[in-house]
From TrEMBL:
Keywords: Cell membrane, Membrane, Transmembrane, Transmembrane helix, Transport
Entry membrane topology: Multi-pass membrane protein
Stretches for region Disordered: 1-26
Pfam families reported for this sequence: ABC2_membrane
Family label: Belongs to the ABC-2 integral membrane protein family.
Source species of the chain: Pelagerythrobacter marensis
Main localization, broad class: membrane
GO CC terms: ATP-binding cassette (ABC) transporter complex
Localization per record: Cell inner membrane; Membrane
Membrane as UniProt keyword: yes
Molecular functions (GO terms): ABC-type transporter activity
InterPro entries to which the protein is assigned, alphabetical: ABC-2_transport_permease, ABC2_TM, ABC2_TM_bact-type, ABC_2_transport
Transmembrane stretches, start-end: 65-83, 95-121, 142-168, 180-203, 210-230, 269-289
Protein name according to UniProt: Transport permease protein
Length: 300
């Protein structure tokens, strides 16, 4: 302890690793190559990456936050006028109230995908990918920073959409089960963030990203029971809908507001859906981590 007090430069940092060592000759030197300086979570680096990504989309928040809210509100207006006339009710509530929760979480998921799918792809196209790969961040920290920023954008978009819909005539956003709103909303945002990050790794140009958005994400979102209950479909199409993970996100999120869903109103059905989405996200996160760790399509 006395030696450390006399030589504070050789004392360990807050993670227990000595950044500067002293050799027998009394000269201070850095650790040898290959000896890690960080043996825990690089909290400063992770926070810096997260804030960089958040500030990136906040600089153009009219496009990234408020425009999606207006677009989603237009969906509500159009479908309410087209399908909600004559006091139509679905699951015991007015049609506009039925549609609103699905539109909120759909907007959250689509924007989470858009945010995460740009980061690495933009770096590859602009030649700035080295700025993400060179800092002392592990693959898990890189993934956490990008996914965390995408989920933040999803929450902001969801809040903006909910705020806009709260003033729409005939829409009630009373929350019946707050746990379902929080859990299914987060699971949907994380799932699409991980899918977006994988897309960003795979894609070589913006056309590749647009192809996944238009031919995978949009159809899965629109055909997941956002505007209807799947009980109205033929049995074959009901089975297809139940194989779509977006269906469980949207129906579970709607259950949080209405207390009703077409998953099933029993606690067991909702808990199984919640756990299933959590397990799916764990699998996606592990796969994404392994791809990042391999350096495929990033370090070639």
């Amino acid at each position: 302890m006395a030696d450390q007090a006399r030589n504070p430069a050789s004392s360990p940092d807050d993670r227990g690793t000595s950044i500067v060592e002293e050799n027998p000759g009394g000269l201070r030197r850095f650790p040898p190559r290959g000896v890690p300086v960080f043996d825990g979570i690089n909290r400063i680096g992770l926070w810096s990456l997260y804030m960089k990504e958040v500030r990136r989309f906040l600089k153009v928040q009219t496009q990234t936050v408020w425009a999606p809210a207006v677009t989603t509100l237009l969906f509500l207006v159009i479908f309410s006028v087209a399908l909600g006339r004559a006091g139509r009710e679905v699951l015991g509530v007015p049609f506009a109230t039925f549609v609103a929760p699905g539109l909120i979480v759909m907007g959250m998921m689509q924007n989470a995908f858009a945010n995460a799918s740009f980061t690495l792809l933009g770096g590859k196209i602009q030649g700035t990918i080295i700025d993400l790969l060179m800092p002392p961040l592990s693959e898990g920290e890189l993934m956490a920073g990008i996914v965390g920023a995408a989920v933040t954008r999803a929450i902001m978009v969801g809040g903006a959409v909910a705020l806009a819909m709260a003033f729409y005539p005939g829409v009630s956003l009373t929350v019946e089960h707050i746990w379902a709103v929080v859990w299914f909303g987060l699971m949907g945002a994380i799932m699409l963030s991980l899918m977006g990050l994988l897309t960003s790794i795979w894609a070589e140009k913006f056309d590749h990203n647009a192809a996944i958005t238009n031919f995978v994400v949009a159809p899965l979102a629109l055909l997941s029971g956002t505007f209807y209950v799947i009980d109205n479909l033929a049995p074959a199409f009901q089975a297809i809908s139940r194989a779509n993970p977006f269906f469980y996100v949207i129906s579970g999120f709607r259950y949080g507001f209405l207390g009703e869903s077409d998953i099933g109103n029993t606690d067991a059905a909702l808990v199984q859906s919640a756990l299933g989405l959590g397990l799916l996200n764990l699998v996606l996160a592990y796969f994404c981590y392994r791809v990042l760790r391999s350096g495929w399509n990033l370090k070639d």
